[in-house]
Amino acid sequence: MTIRALVVDDSLQLRRSVMYALQKLPDVVCVEAGDGAEALRKLRGGPFDIVLSDINMPVLDGLKLVAHIRADPALAKLPIVMITTESAEADRERALKLGANAYLVKPVQAIEVLETVKSLLGLS
Questions:
Q1: How many domains does the chain have?
Q2: Cα–Cα distance between 59 and 11 in angstroms, integer?
Q3: Alpha-carbon span 116 to 118, nearest angstrom
Q4: 3-state DSSP call for residue 108?
Q5: pLDDT tens digits for 36-47?
Q6: Strand 3-8, strand 80-84: pairing
């Protein structure tokens, strides 16, 4: 089974580090987006199994991206992992209340990304 992951961050370096972690899973295809608006266009273009997104981005931030995904019946069940520098509990609560499934604070270790994705996708 191929896993399609959408990695959303305005930092190319951070997108690449998340994709590097995901490559440790078998049959992973990573698609990149530099902001939430680009992510929405890509989500509408094909099926994805999981979204990993930053919060602070230009054009459309990660929290608004979560709200858009949850408002779309075709995407409403899509697992979303927030990976952000926002470490305050209020930020975590807001993201989870909007519908994010997991919240990781940067700097994040590859194993933490991997374990979170495996858990959300029901992989061993």
A1: 1
A2: 14
A3: 6
A4: coil
A5: 999 999 999 989
A6: unpaired
- Side-by-side strand order, sheet with 80-84: 28-33, 3-8, 50-53, 80-84, 102-105
Contact at 8 Å (CB) between 21 and 110? yes
Question: Which H, E and C letters describe 41-107, residue by residue?
Answer: HHHHCCCCCEEEECCCCCCCCHHHHHHHHHHCCCCCCCCEEEEECCCCHHHHHHHHHHCCCEEEECC
Each residue's pLDDT tens digit, 16-26: 999 999 999 98
Global confidence as pTM: 0.96
Name 3's bridge partners. 28
What's at 110, amino acid-wise?
Answer: A
Cα–Cα distance, 64 to 98 (Å, whole number): 9
Q: How many angstroms separate the CA atoms of 7 and 12, rounded?
A: 10
pLDDT tens-digit readout, 51-83 = 999 999 999 999 999 999 999 999 999 999 999
Determine the structural domain holding residue 35 and report its residue range. Answer: 3-121
CATH number at residue 41: 3.40.50.2300
